[in-house]
């Protein structure tokens, strides 16, 4: 029987593992983290992500997910609000990703945690996977699902200067009861000069603030996070109000630099036809769409479908590229408008004047189909 190796146990890798194992394949998944971890992510689960999770047998509500029915868009003192055009939830990635990995194990996938893959040898028909602690493993098909982390031997082709790419940061809070009540059921998207932040409640009465900023000197040194927050709360009284009296729940924020927004993998002949890139290894959509997890799961389902039909990774990548190109283009335009200081007030004014525009944008930046 042919063997599949999955590198990375996020939503993309775990989805692929579940589907391959349920199709009777021999599957091994290698994840470098030894146990559940927090990830830099706004923890927003779009309607598509929820549908895909349920189709795999993972019910976000039973994990403590909070329903999100409305979007608030905020710039300075301007606020626009609209109902989301799809049912959505918020749930920590620590809990969501863990549930997917456990489902993969229950489906029969071998999940090896606490082992990092250090590189790939791509010059053979069977790809060699170098690992920490497990030696070199070879497999007929490899599903590359390491998220934003590139592996030695299989870098993504850079589409922008890494030094100019944004930085993602995340902190959990316990808000005051009145702030938590005002936030319930909403995802708040706060635009600020050089970036935007998402704020929403998650399970256990916690709230998550996840933000994206252009590289900034504010972040230098041990007090960088405090400086940045001071600047944001000064620019946005709404955020200051929300965080007044809030208790941070992590010692320091989680951070990721050099986020390659807009990256969409172009199939090319130099890569083996047995290397399927899925999740952020295939496409990195701007996070204000809140659809990255759905794309990760959707791309995994498409890759598994292709490999079970005997299609190669180049065909799969071309089909995925076609399926995502329009969504990625629109998301890129929205991201640019949302991060341009001169346009941010205008964006919120337009959203308040024509709330249908916000719903339209939310709808057209979704991945189509449930896998
Ligand atoms: C600031 C920000 C906010 C976001 N907010 C949202 C949001 O609210 N909603 C949403 O849907 N999307 C959001 N996204 C996007 C979303 O987080 C990603 O699209 C999604 O996590 C991609 O899933 P993945 O499985 O491809 O990668 P990941 O979730 O990153 O998983 C990759 C896994 O691979 C493992 N790994 C990495 N390297 C190795 C290695 N060498 N060996 C073994 N294992 C390895 C990692 O430990 C990790 O578990 C956001 C992104 C950013 C940057």
Q: What would your notes on this structure say?
A:
With about 375 residues, the protein is α/β, with parallel strands linked by helices. About 35% of the residues lie in helices and about 25% in strands. It has ten helices and 17 strands. The strands form three sheets. Strands 3, 4, 5, 11, 12, 13, 14, 15 and 16 form a nine-stranded mixed beta sheet that branches. The radius of gyration is 20 Å and the shape is globular. The model has no long low-confidence stretch (mean pLDDT about 90).
Summarize the structure.
This protein has 371 residues and is α/β, with parallel strands linked by helices.
Keywords, separated by commas or semicolons:
single chain; 371 residues; alpha/beta; FAD/NAD(P)-binding domain; nine-stranded mixed beta sheet; five-stranded parallel beta sheet; 10 helices; 35% helix; binds flavin-adenine dinucleotide
Main structural class = alpha/beta
Mean pLDDT: 91
**C-alpha-based Rg, rounded:** 20 Å
CATH topology: FAD/NAD(P)-binding domain
Order of helices and strands: EHEEHEEHEEEEEEHEEEHHEEEHHHH
CA-based shape: globular
CATH class category: Alpha Beta
Number of domains: 1
Main beta sheet, described? 9 strands, mixed
Task: List the SSEs and their pairings.
Blueprint: E1 3-7, H1 11-22, E2 26-31, E3 44-45, H2 47-55, E4 66-75, E5 78-90, H3 93-107, E6 110-113, E7 117-121, E8 127-131, E9 136-139, E10 141-144, E11 167-174, H4 177-183, E12 186-192, E13 195-201, E14 207-213, H5 224-235, H6 237-243, E15 247-248, E16 254-256, E17 275-277, H7 292-308, H8 313-339, H9 341-353, H10 355-364
Parallel strand pairs: 1-2, 1-10, 2-6, 4-12, 10-17
Antiparallel strand pairs: 3-5, 4-5, 7-8, 8-9, 11-14, 11-15, 11-16, 12-13, 13-14
Helix pairs in contact: 1-3, 1-7, 2-7, 5-6, 7-8, 9-10
Bound molecules: flavin-adenine dinucleotide.
């Amino acid at each position: 029987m042919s063997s599949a190796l999955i590198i990375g146990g996020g939503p993309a890798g775990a989805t692929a593992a579940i589907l391959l194992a349920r199709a009777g394949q021999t599957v091994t998944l290698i994840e470098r983290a030894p146990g559940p971890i927090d990830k830099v992510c706004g923890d927003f689960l779009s309607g598509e992500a929820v549908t895909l999770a349920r189709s795999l047998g993972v019910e976000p509500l039973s994990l403590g997910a909070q329903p999100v029915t409305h979007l608030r868009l905020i710039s300075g003192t301007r606020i626009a609000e609209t109902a989301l055009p799809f049912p959505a939830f918020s749930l920590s990635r620590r809990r969501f990703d863990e549930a997917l990995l456990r489902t993969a194990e229950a489906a029969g996938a071998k999940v090896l945690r606490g082992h990092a893959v250090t590189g790939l040898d791509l010059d053979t028909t069977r790809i060699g996977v170098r690992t920490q602690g497990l030696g070199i493993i070879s497999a007929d098909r490899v599903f590359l699902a390491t998220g934003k982390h590139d592996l030695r031997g299989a870098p993504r082709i850079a589409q922008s200067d890494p030094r100019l790419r944004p930085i993602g940061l995340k902190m959990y809070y316990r808000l005051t009861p009145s702030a938590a009540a005002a936030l319930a059921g909403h995802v708040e998207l706060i635009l600020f000069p050089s970036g935007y932040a998402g704020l929403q409640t998650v399970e256990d009465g916690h709230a998550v603030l996840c933000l994206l900023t252009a590289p900034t000197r504010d972040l230098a040194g041990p007090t960088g996070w405090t400086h940045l927050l001071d600047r944001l709360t000064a620019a946005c009284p709404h955020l200051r109000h929300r965080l007044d009296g809030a208790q941070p729940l992590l010692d320091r924020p989680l951070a990721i630099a050099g986020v390659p927004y807009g990256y969409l993998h172009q199939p090319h002949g130099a890569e083996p036809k047995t290397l399927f890139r899925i999740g952020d290894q295939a496409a990195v959509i701007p996070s204000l769409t809140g659809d990255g997890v759905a794309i990760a799961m959707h791309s995994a389902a498409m890759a598994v479908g292709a490999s079970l039909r005997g299609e190669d990774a180049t065909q799969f990548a071309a089909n995925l590229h076609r399926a995502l190109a329009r969504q990625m283009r629109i998301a890129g335009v929205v991201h640019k408008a949302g991060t341009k200081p001169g346009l941010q007030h205008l964006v919120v004014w337009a959203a308040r004047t024509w709330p249908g525009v916000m719903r339209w944008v939310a709808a057209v930046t979704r991945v189509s189909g449930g896998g």
